[in-house]
Design a protein that fits this description.
The structure is a single chain. The protein has about 425 residues and is an alpha/beta fold. About 50% of the residues lie in helices and about 15% in strands. The chain folds into two domains: about 250 residues, Rossmann fold; about 160 residues, Glycogen Phosphorylase B (Rossmann fold), CATH 3.40.50. Helix 12 crosses helix 16.
Amino acid sequence: MRFVLASWGSRGDVEPSLAVGCELARRGHDVRMAVPPDLVGFVEAAGLVGVPYGPEVGALLNEDFVRNLWSKFFRNPVGLLRQLYGLPIRHWNEANETLMSLVDGVDLLSTAVNFEPAAANVAEYYDIPLICMHHFPLRPNGQILQGLPSPLVRSGSTISEWMFWRATRNAENAQRHSLGLPKARRRSPRRIAEHRWLEIQGYDAVCVPGLAEEWAKWNGQRPFVGPLTMQLSTESDREVAAWISAGPPPICFATGSIPVESPADTLAMIASACTQLGQRGLVCAGGTDYSNVNHPDDIKVVGAANYAEVFPACRAIVHHGGSGTTAASLRAGVPALILWSSADQPFWGNQLKRLRVGTARSLTATTVQSMVADLRQILNPEYAVRAQHLATQLTTPADSISRAADLFERAANREKR
């Protein structure tokens, strides 16, 4: 069978689709991926065909509104929403053209969160099944925020969904007109549900208590498969393993794809916190360049690292709260501190607090004193016990990928019958 997997976003957005695509290719299927131009090499290194899709993502990650998304939202929500909605509107036609060049004759199209409505319209035009890949609870629900009544939270999510549709409606209807489809009278998620297309949840239901029960009415349309990660090895793996084994387990600081505003200040904060706690620190740089920043001998800085190998060997993990990094920390059974700033990161921070396997706060509100206090909290042995117990309830990486690939095959086969 032939599959096209579209995924626009950072590496963390692309990796779940790539993991499934590699498994489908291993099973003998023809797989092509549409990804940001600067991640085509990432896809091709894994052995799949990659096609440029939308704008480059690297430059966007350096923009201030992405780095401090939530703090800007609370200061100027209307202005921020205009910026966020502007990106899909500007590149909607480009996304449509790329998908139209790839999808003719394929058996199934999948899409990540970004450009999902455009992909849904292409699937409707070709009358093929669509699979939506969600790495956090995107659809309205009452579990995404704690401390507020579930109906209120659900209504807020629904309003947010409706606002996006209203803001992008002209761009979407222009696409639908070019495809000969009628104007959209309902927002895209409603139409996706009516088609009974799958919305794969790339995380474990146990990590969001109550969500599986709330969504049971969808009769399997939103299956939970567990986190979809590839556990890729890196050039620094042996060096990191040797450094870790040469002393007591360190605290790992994984700063994610979005570059931090000041590498020097960030590393100084990490060094000071580790000194006060009497701990070693391992900094996994991600998208931040620390190469010209001095640091003490008990702080080691590396670039990319294999979290599946590193995290289990650490006492605690401090990270940005991306879905893939959160999944790796939960699977490692190690308590975590999430310092969130953008996208779904505060949601995952809230879930760690709810499950009592970690804590979280806004990155902009973080100081040396708060970091030390938060780390002292999660270094309490009770957090490690709960984290280890939760890890036993999570889907293994291999099972998550296999389950997702099975769903892709079944959806494509069902359409053929």
